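Q: I have 115 residues here and want to know how they pack in 3D. Can you give me a structure?
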Amino acid sequence: MKHLKTLMESVDFTTGRAKDELLLDGQKEKYDRIAVFAGDDFIFAYNYTGRSFKIDTSKFENADVWHFSPVSGISSYVGRVRGNVYAYKKTTTPSEGCKDVVVIIKAADRDKTKT
């Protein structure tokens, strides 16, 4: 939980809300649920099982994506998304053997954020 707290404190989480409607594909129930939390210039998608999903990134012109391990606190830069959808594919997370991952999507340029 320590690493998740640090992650939440890295953004203005007071502007954030649960935004499950941004999840375009991959949502399940109970333990297979993907939790999406988004603010003005960020989206966090917590994936406990490590399975694939798609998330709507149309609110940003450009967005940078990281995969973050809540177990180790290690993040890996994935790249820049230019488009309306980011598709997370099951991969090795920053902590080898750890399934849960937080996909972090942040506006690359705050001035380019759509309203």
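Q: Anything worth noting?
A: The domain at 2-112 is CATH 2.60.40 (Immunoglobulin-like). The first strand starts at residue 17 and ends at 18.
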